[in-house]
Amino acid sequence: MDHLLLLILGIFLSTLGSVNIKGNISTIHSYNRRKVKEEDVPKYGRAVGTGTLVIGVSLILSYLVTFWNTDAIDYIVLPALVVSLAFILYGQIKYNHGIF
Length: 100
Prior knowledge:
Radius of gyration: 15 Å
Order of helices and strands: HHHH
Distance between the termini: 38 Å
Helix content: over 70%
Number of strands: 0
Structural class: mainly alpha
């Protein structure tokens, strides 16, 4: 129960990522999506949503792994953060034409 926050945050981020993948980008800050063209909204949502979903799933997996080995959390979360940030930055730079 010490790592219950990992599970709660993981479920929240996974849900948020799924919503973004489906094309609803209203959950993304307005300054991060203001330059996205209407025809690029689904692509942008998929890129950012995939990154968010990867973070959420890694947190859920980390919670499950804590039952056997708490040291393995770093080996799950850190690579997932790198991959997910790559997806998010790709979406931001390609479809929003910059980070902000």
